[in-house]
Design goal:
By secondary structure, the protein is an alpha+beta fold. Helices cover about 45% and strands about 15% of the residues. The protein has a five-stranded mixed beta sheet. It has a five-stranded antiparallel beta sheet with strand order 13-14-20-16-17, with no helix packed on it. A hairpin with a 3-residue loop joins β18 (about 625) and β19 (about 630-635). The longest helix is centred in the first third of the chain and has 26 residues, at about 95-120. The termini are close together.
Length: about 675
Amino acid sequence: MGNKKLGLENKNYFFIFVFLVLSLLFFYRIVFLKNTFFIADLMTEHYPWKIFASDVVRTGKIPLWNPYNYSGMPFMANMQSGIFYPLNAFFYVFDFVIAYKIYVVLHFVLAGFFMFLLMREYRVEIYASVFSAIIYAFNGFAVVRAEILSELGVYALFPLVFLFLKKSFEKFKFANFFALFLALQFFSGHPQRVFYEIFAFSIYALFGVFEKKSLKPFLIFIYGVFLSFLISAIQIIPSIELFLNSHRVSGVPFSIRMLNSFALKDFLRFINPFQSYSSNDWAYACYVGIFAFLFCFYSLKSRFKEKKFFYAIFFISIFLITGKNNPFFRIFKNFPLINAFRFPATMNILTVFAISILAGLGLEKLKAKSGIKLLVLCLTFMELFSVTGKFNSTINDDIFRVYGKKTKLLLNDRGLHRVFLTYDAENTRRSHGRNWFEYWINWKDNLYGNLNLVYKIFGVAGEEPLRVKWYSEFLRSCFLYPDIEERINLLSMLGVKYIFSRKEIKTPDLCLISNGEVKVYRNKKFLPRVFIPESAKFMKEQDILKYIKSNKFHPLKEVILIDTDKPDKKNYENIKGRAEIVLYENEKILISADLKKEGFLVLSDTFYLGWKVFIDGNRSKIYRANYVLRAVRLKKGKHRILFLYSPATFHAGKYLSLFGLFSLIFLTKLFEL
């Protein structure tokens, strides 16, 4: 397919170089200096995910399971891991610091270039197209996405996906490209932002219906969305399974969802260059600039026929980002799926998209010489560079290579034991240091969020958008506020050997091994990853949490199982036996056991669908033990127990994605004939 068929003229490719130069200049601090962006979600989520994924992918495997956070949980099913997003390949090839810098710069090049192409598709002049692209690429909302890598991929592709949707209304074959790049957005990893876009696309399709007086545009839109779901099924289906078994399935409390709602005064953030921002203020950093807003309103003079659509998107998004401050917003609060989304301010992805396009239309309408328009471009870039270029904090890029004393301490004691951060340690994320770099090394040394994943240190909790429902309930019920002395039995059950706490813990069961602002204690009573309790009890599911929090429960003496899972009428008492782990891998665990009497073996990893167990080569049942863990029933004698993680949702998604890709190729070829 030639360039003209795609609507791309060869001279347009020159502007890839233009946006590359602009992006290199804009991010000179991380490109040409030994600096990097580093805080918030990047440090506690995306950095650990990318390190873990690259380590696994380099072995030739797909990282389906993460054994290091929340006592084990799905990894690939977390869409933000972005395993199948092509541009994440940089992290699989290069050192994280280098890959991250390439990833950031490349996405801003693409964001600018794709917006430029969209404007050119609308036959907007060169200067106005570049103007829109500069605003779209370097506004505050975009710039702070450099720390949220999954959002950055969605944001950069948005104009290109929209371009192909527009072209598909003219020629149906382009609907396949719309579907392909929409699927890439799903693979990039932030479904909430993609659904915002699909919402905008649906409105655009309805505009097409009224304009053409035909249902064809809306049917093409439905076709493209369906095909994109099919192509990305390998990601979407496991993610749906995780969502349905997560703490968000019943919705997020309205008060949590409405965090980061825009108040009236916050609208000044779009145009006030003197606004005071906290570092990496991803929710409110939406500065587009004075030039952008002036020309956005000047576009009222434009005769561009689709101008009404972009004004509609602008005002709808403004209506929605007000969230809790908008009394009409409550109408949508119980809508399925929407009730699982948080932070109304993130709807600004649509606001800045509309502003960028309308500003370009305004500049095109300006009757001025080319030199004046070029000056506007230069001043706009300088304005954004001077304001939004400071939104992201930087530090020496060794921040990702150097680690502190507590981390070294844990790395010198490798094993299948876990670490636990008390509520006060995890939620008071402060540190100390003689300088900026030392401060953040010490901060990172407290293993906040998912940082334990970087070092392959097993942890009880973490920082994940979706968490297994029963495990999340267990953590919230048992560890949210109580004195940790009351929960040593449960921590021991989870194999917790090391406890991080800001408060002093006074109990003979713990030994202080590292003092300081955040102290480290060693638990003398921690249990091995696999053990055989002396007895088994069966209770109603709703009673188990209450019981295991009581002083009556001792994990080595008993395992508590759900009464509906009781296999027979036997009494499981006075069980004697031993068990040891022969092989422990992410998705494969081999255990040998020897029991003097029939009983249960407990593996202190999270119970989750997709795990299978084979006892002496025969498929058997996995029981949910102590509300959150796994157990298997063993007869008297010696056994070999093999746990394998092979979720049916992954395999179903894999075949659907292959079918979707073959359908895409076939249909694209068919419409070329």
